[in-house]
Amino acid sequence: MRDRSTPPPTPMVPPRNKPSVLDESNIAPPRLDQVSDACEVEAEAEAEAEAEPEPEPEASAESEADAKVRMLAEELKAAHARALEDRELIHTSQAGYKAHVELLEDRVEALEAELAAERQDRKAADAAKAVNVKRIADLQAELGKAKRNQAKLVAALDKTRSKLAAALADADSQRSALTQQLDAAHGKLANTELLLQARDRQLVQSRAAFNLRVGELEDLAHHATARLRSSQALTDPAAYIPRHAHDALRAKLDKARAEIRDLKRALARAHHPPVAAIDFVASGTPSYLSHPATSHDDDTSVDHSRSLHQRRPPSASPEHPKLFKVTANLTSYETDRQAYA
What we know:
Elements: H1 32-51, H2 60-232, H3 243-271, H4 287-290, H5 321-340
Helix pairs in contact: 1-2, 2-3, 2-5, 3-5
């Protein structure tokens, strides 16, 4: 900024449109010191002209010279008047220029303040830009890390998908195998149900035949008991039965009754097997068929571990060994009774 104590440069004064001897279109306006010097020279010339006595008109050349001098003096006076006017105009222009310069200086100061503010803003913007650049670099690094993690996750996902597909295929194969086993088990269950129904029918028939035969044997036993009691009441020595023969007959009769009770229990167990439910093992065989059932009599024990197709009910036929044994005992009892009678 320019110091206001120094005088401003002299502005150029525009030429005026006044008639003059000299061409003033290409001449710069005189400065103040030049105008003051010209005024002083003109004043000295007028004083000398007034002090000198007027010469007598001696020659025409001198008169012409005087006329020229007077004309030049008049022009000088006119120039002096113009210089005074120009001086006043210059003073006025200087005041206007000074006000304009002050206005321009104020404007320059305002522009400099704006420029300083813009510089501060630019510095702040540069700092923010640096922060943003650093943040962008950090974000790019995080993005690269995230992409690497994404690639790892995609690889792990593909691996998991392959394992899941293999597991699903294995599960499908196992399901198909289990479905086949279940179908086979259902078929075996249906066959077993049919066999059980046939076995129940056979048991019903056997029970009826057995009950009939047991009734006959009981009647025979009661008849033998009655005859035995009637024989004990006889007083005829010929009909007397010895004590040891009587005990032997009594033992045979008790044994026959015990065998009848055992046969009834075996028939009840055969009609109602001691199982809670029919559960299939891996081979599809019911659990009560895979374990042999126990019996109180070794003669009537049945091997249940055999196949169901090869198995026969314990009393499917009236010619059971137990029945033969009971019949033989009763027949022997009757034979002995008749012999002693």
